[in-house]
């Protein structure tokens, strides 16, 4: 069961969180060209994927709960806690900064929306990259 949950955790991370890091970067092109309809559609996709990314957290807790007791894993394990904090920062940035910037972009506010979406998605992606490093390295 632990192996199945681990596989589910990794697969959901790849297919849900991976696109959260990439899709906003592609949506920046829509903001540059003034294609507000595509930008809004992309915002909806990113919002849905952001909520679905909670599956990764839930399966991660399941994997942690089934881990061998000799590893002494808990939510207070430094790399686990750091991963959760970085994930939370990424999620909040995506939902509070990136999605509204992509969704509400208008031709007259395009440059401002582009800057917010670019900065927010860039920082969120760096946070997600740090989570991957922590998950693999487990310092």
Polypeptide structure, described:
The structure is a single chain. The protein has one domain (2-137). It starts with a helix and ends with a helix. The protein has helices at residues 2-33, 36-52, 54-66, 78-103, 110-137. Helix 1 (2-33) runs antiparallel to helix 2 (36-52) and helix 1 packs antiparallel against helix 5. 83% of the residues lie in helices and 0% in strands. The chain has 139 residues and is mainly alpha-helical.
Instruction: Calculate the terminal CA-CA distance, rounded to whole Å.
Output: 25 Å
What's the total helix number?
5
Average of the residue pLDDT scores? 92
Number of strands: 0
Principal-axes geometry comes out as elongated
Structural class: mainly alpha
Low-confidence stretches: none
Main sheet attributes: strand count, strand direction, barrel closure = none
Give the amount of beta strand, in percent: under 5%
Number of domains: 1
Helix share, percent: over 70%
Rg to the nearest angstrom?
Answer: 17 Å
Helix-strand sequence: HHHHH
